[in-house]
Amino acid sequence: MNKLLIGIDLSKNSTGIVFRYNGISRYLNILNKLVFTHSKDKIKKSQIADLAISKNEVLQSLINLNNIHIILFESDPISPPSHIGINKWEQDHIKSCVLHSKLVFTEIMNIINQYYKHIEINDITICFENYSYGSKNSGDQTIQLIELTAFLKYNICTSFFNYNNLQNFLIVASPSIKMYVGSGNFDKYDLFNAYINNYKNDDLLINDPLWQVLRKNNGIYWKKKEKKLKKPKKIGNKKIGYKYINNLEIRTVHTPISDLLDAYFIALWLDDVYYKKNLTGL
Predict the structure, then answer these.
(1) DSSP readout, 25-55?
(2) What pTM did the predictor assign?
(3) 109-114 contacts: CB < 8 A, separation 24 or more?
(4) Among 100, 143, 244, 274, which is least packed by CB within 10 angstroms?
């Protein structure tokens, strides 16, 4: 397909973006380096994060791949309203959303201008993963993500599409992507496994440097951990708390791999389902 398909999995700390053209993927990760340190020393925190990154085998395995671009930035968590007041919190939050959305938009445009400048704007499709309203990030965190996404969407619709070609501006629900890959119950590790085993028979994936590295060294990109399951404690019909019943072993995929693969499957869905199966009228 001669269209440039862009899948975006946006977050505050690790945004994954995949550019897919003629079956070949290019990956962009915009990563808050401060997630790699818990230091509260404002002066030394950045240096500590740099040191942690230099020793992080996941990131070090990615930085020399010719189809991955990792952009590091620094952003401290915003203090809660209970500490700084609701208005100061809102001011800091909106400033963070504006600056971060500008960064993401700028890096998207840098990739387009460097690698895909020859492609007409009519042949570029951008697709976001829609908000997961029922996830653990519901409530305030979902509202904050919506506000962050709104600024980025504004930049794309005005500065890039210029209010035209909005038929090429799309969203897709996360369950739709999971169902496309294999099952609506897929978690991050299932998507990782689907990628390295090429569940969707992506013809050119075998030549993808990221796929080659993840498949060769797949054990360093995820870890096992135990999650405690709990159920409500009741006296009669009254809930008085929770009790733990057992531990569940789960597998988590390290940052930024899970974000990049989410974006990869969005772009692949555009290529394999949205256009090939002619869903453009939806």
Answers:
(1) EEEEEEEEGGGG-----TTTHHHHHHHHHHT
(2) 0.88
(3) 109/160, 111/17, 111/19, 111/26, 111/28, 111/69, 112/4, 112/19
(4) 244
Nearest to 133 by CA among 82, 97, 175: 175
| Six token digits for residue 168 | 């090429």
Taking the CA atoms of 103, 104, 108 and 114 in sequence, report the sign of the dihedral they define.
Answer: positive
pLDDT digit string (tens) for the chain, length 282 residues: 689 999 999 999 999 999 999 999 999 999 999 988 877 666 678 888 888 899 999 999 999 999 999 999 998 888 888 899 999 988 998 999 999 999 999 999 999 999 999 999 999 999 999 876 555 554 567 778 888 999 999 999 998 998 887 899 999 999 999 999 999 889 999 999 999 999 999 999 999 999 999 999 988 999 887 666 666 666 666 665 655 556 667 889 999 999 999 999 999 999 999 988 766 655
Give start and end residues of each alpha helix (H) in 182-279. Answer: 188-196, 209-216, 257-269
Picking from 63, 59, 35, 60, the residue whose alpha carbon sits closest to that of residue 48 is 35
Contacts of 35 (CB under 8 A, 6+ apart): 13, 14, 255
Closest of 203, 270, 254 to residue 7, by C-alpha: 270
Measured distance CA(34)–CA(75) in Å, rounded: 7
- Asked if residue 74 lies in contact with residue 46, where contact means CB atoms within 8 angstroms, the answer is yes
* Domain residue extents for the chain: 4-275
- Name which of 280, 274, 260 is nearest 25 in CA terms: 260
Q: Give every CB contact of residue 150 below 8 A, 6+ residues apart in sequence.
A: none
DSSP 8-class letter at 219: G
Neighbours of 123 (CB within 10 A): 16
